[in-house]
Amino acid sequence: MERANGSPLRGGIDLGGTKIEAIVVDAGHNVLGSSRHPTPSSGGPEAVAAELVAAMREACQAAGVETSSLQGVGVGSPGVVDEAAGTVSTARNLPDWEGSFELGAALSRELGTTATLGNDVQVATDAEFELGAGKAYRSLLGVMWGTGVGGGIVLDGKPWLGRGGAGEIGHVVVKIDGRRCPCGRRGCMEAYAGRAAMEARARRKQEEGTPTDLFKIMKDRGRTKLTSAVWAKALEREDKLAVELIDEAVEALGAGIASAQNLLDVQAIVIGGGLGVRLGEPFVKRIRTAMEPHVFNDANWPDVLLAGLGDLGGALGAALLVSRRVEGKPAPVAETPSAAG
Amino acid sequence: MERANGSPLRGGIDLGGTKIEAIVVDAGHNVLGSSRHPTPSSGGPEAVAAELVAAMREACQAAGVETSSLQGVGVGSPGVVDEAAGTVSTARNLPDWEGSFELGAALSRELGTTATLGNDVQVATDAEFELGAGKAYRSLLGVMWGTGVGGGIVLDGKPWLGRGGAGEIGHVVVKIDGRRCPCGRRGCMEAYAGRAAMEARARRKQEEGTPTDLFKIMKDRGRTKLTSAVWAKALEREDKLAVELIDEAVEALGAGIASAQNLLDVQAIVIGGGLGVRLGEPFVKRIRTAMEPHVFNDANWPDVLLAGLGDLGGALGAALLVSRRVEGKPAPVAETPSAAG
Question: How far is A195 from chain B (nearest CA, A)?
C-alpha cells in the first residue's frame, strides 16, 4: 500500500513491564497498524530492544510501510529516561536493566529512522492532554494505575518534569509507618495500590490460608501474573480477597490523589494505566469518592476523568514525541539540579 | 525626614493570626520603619482593617513619611484572597471573617495609597525566592510552619497558584484514618505539625493528666496561646510532652514534604513560618532527616534550607506585591476552574 500524498507516518511504542504496544499513525493520529508483543522477561536491554524492533516492524507491515519510511519512532519507557542522550537507566520492571543502555541509538540503527525516547507515564499523560480526556484543560494530573502507580503533570499547558524526577505520585506517603512498598520504602500509595504490591500481598495472604480465586483465574487464563483482566474477573466473581485489596487500593488512591490536588490545584485529573483502563468508569467514580474526605478546596473540585485513549494512550503519546521533534517543538526540558549545578 | 531623590518607598504588611507586622522599605528592600501589633481577636474584618491601618501608620512614622506618599501597600493575608477584586474571604484564623470583605478598598481609602493583596504563604515564599534563601533557584517549595502549615510553590521562576488554591501542603495526607485536623479532616500533615493542632493536643493531654510545663511557660510570659517562643522554651527545658509533640510534628513534616518533593521535584525547599524561624537550623536538619525514608529520587536531593528573611519574610513579600504592580509585572494569575468554566 502506497500513500498517495506521502502523508507523514510516525511510529509509537509503549514499553511496559508486561507488554510492548507498537503503532503506526498518520498526521491526524489515526492508527494505521499495530502490534502487541510480550515484554521479554530475560536477556537484558538487548533482548528488549530486539523485541521493540520486531513489534515496530510488525505494526509497519500491518500499515503497509517500511520502518525506514517513518518520520521517526517514539518510545515511552519506564526507568530513568534521558531524552537528549537517548538512554534508559535502572528500569526496575524490565529484565536485568540496572545500568544505562543506549536504546535510542539501537532502535534508530535497526529501524532506519530516528528513535526518540520519553518517560512512559509522562508520554501517556501528554497523549491524554493533547488527544484524550484532558483536551479541554490547561492543567492536568495523569494517574497511571498499573503495575506501579505513575503520575504525569501538565501545568499551564506544559509538562512539568522538575529536575527529571517529578510526578512520582505512587510514592506519595499515605500512611506513616505503613505497608512496605516494592520500592523498599514504607507507606507509599503504591504499596497499597500498585498491581505488583497487590499481587505480592495476595500471594502472601493465600499462603497464610486466606481463600481466593485470584491465582486460579490467573492459571485458567494462561498467565503467570495477576493481570488487570484477572483482577477484573475476580471482582466480578466477588472474590473476597480481591475485593478487600482493591478497596484498600482505592482508599490509598483517594488519599494520595487528593494530596496531589491539595498541592497542585489542577483543573482535571485523568485516571489511566492498565488497571485504571480495565476497571473503568465505575472505579474512577470510586476513586473520586475516596478523595472526598481529603480534598481541601472542596468548593472547587477538579474534574476526575477516565483516560480517553484506552490501552493505546501510551503508544499514541510516544508517537507525539516524533511529532514534536519534527515540528521543531522543543522537548520539555528538565531543570538542572540547582542553579549552581 | 525628606528623601532627597524621591526614592520610591513601599509598604508591606504581614497579616497573621496572632500578629500584624508592618514595614516600610525602599527600592532596595531595606526596612526604613516597622511596627508590630497584635491581631484583634474580635470585631470582625473592620477591626482587623483598622489595626492594619494603625500598624502601617506607625511604620510610616518610624520611617518619617506619610502613608499617602508610599507607592502602595502590599498585604499578605490568610484566607481566600482575590487579588483582582481586593477581597479576603473565609479567613479562619481571623475574627468573625467568614464572608468576603473588601480589604483592598478599605485600606486604600484610609491610607491614601493603593493597597494590593496576596496570599500570605505565597507572598512569604516569593520573598524567599526573590530576596532570601531561594535566590539561587528556579524552582522552590516554601513550607511555612506556624499556626497552620502553608505551602508556596515556585516553578520555572514563577509562582504556581493553580486555580487559586495550590500549595496546601498542610493538608497533604500523611496518615489515612489519622489524627483529626483543625480543618475537620483526618490525617493531614497539619493535624500533627500545626501549632494550633499541637496546642489543642497538649491541652487535652494535660487535662488527661500528662505533666507538662508548656502552659506554665505560656502564663509566665503573659501569653494566652502556645507561641513559637513557648514551644522553644519547653524544648530547651526538655519538657517531655513538648518533645513528644514536636517529634511527631517533625515526622509528619518529613513525610509530607517528601511527598511534595516526589511530585514536584523542585531544586530547593525553604522552611519558614513562626515555628520554622524560631526553632531554626537544627530543626531544618531534623526535618531533612525525617524526609529521608520517603524521598524517592534519593540520588538527587533538593537543597533543604532555613528561610533567610526571618520574621520579616511575610512583610517583605507583601511589599514585593507593590513593586510588581508598579513595575507593570502582572500578578501571577490563577487558572480558571476549567477551560469550559
Answer: 19
The answer as to whether A341 is a domain residue is no
Helix (H) or strand (E) segment spanning residue A285: helix A281-291
Which residue is associated with the grid cell 479541554? Answer: A136
The answer as to whether A276 is a domain residue is: yes
**Helix, strand or coil, per DSSP, at residue B217:** helix
Number of domains in chain B: 2
Q: How far, CA to CA in Å, does B304 sit from each of A95, B152, B167, B247, B279?
A: 35, 14, 17, 18, 15
CB A197 within 8 A of CB A188: no
**Residue B151 sits in the same domain as residue B299:** yes
Task: Let me know how long chain B is.
Answer: 341
Q: Tell whether the model's pLDDT for residue B330 goes beyond 70.
A: no
Q: Go through A158-192 and write b for each residue having 16 or more CB atoms within 10 A of its CB, e for each that does not.
A: ebbbbbbbbbbbbbbbbbbebbebbbebbbbbbbb
pLDDT score recorded for residue A340: 38
A150 and A255 in a common domain: yes
Determine, for residues B297 and A340 on separate chains, whether the beta-carbon distance falls below 8 Å: no
Alpha helices in chain B (DSSP H): 44-63, 103-111, 120-130, 189-193, 195-207, 214-220, 228-236, 240-264, 273-279, 281-291, 313-326
User: Which amino acid belongs to residue A115?
Assistant: A
Reported as a single tens digit per residue, the pLDDT across B178-231 is: 999 999 999 999 999 999 999 999 999 999 999 999 999 999 999 999 999 999
Residue B339 has pLDDT above 90, yes or no: no
Q: Does A134 touch chain B (CB under 8 A)?
A: no
Contacts of A161 in chain B (CB under 8 A): 265
List CB contacts (< 8 A) between A263 and chain B.
Answer: 151, 153, 166-169, 172, 260, 263-264
Residues of chain B found within 8 Å of residue A162, distances taken between Cβ atoms:
139, 264-266
Same domain membership, residue A219 and residue A96:
no
Q: Which residue of B has its CA nearest to A164?
A: B265
Structural domain including B275 reads 138-308
B68 touches chain A (CB under 8 A): no
What digits encode the pLDDT tens for the residues A232-246?
999 999 999 999 999
The pLDDT, as a whole number, for residue B332 is 62
Cα first-last separation, chain B: 52
* Residue A337 maps to a domain: no
CA distances from residue B272 to A16, A72, B149 in whole angstroms, order as listed: 42, 49, 10
Q: Which residues contact B272 (CB under 8 A, 6 or more apart)?
A: B124, B128, B142, B143, B144, B145, B306, B307, B309, B313
- Cβ–Cβ under 8 Å, residues B114 and B325: yes
Return the C-alpha cell found at B320: 514585593
**Residue A304 bridge partners (DSSP):** A269
What pLDDT does B341 receive? 33
> pLDDT tens digit string along A149-196?
999 999 999 999 999 889 999 999 999 999 999 999 999 999 999 999
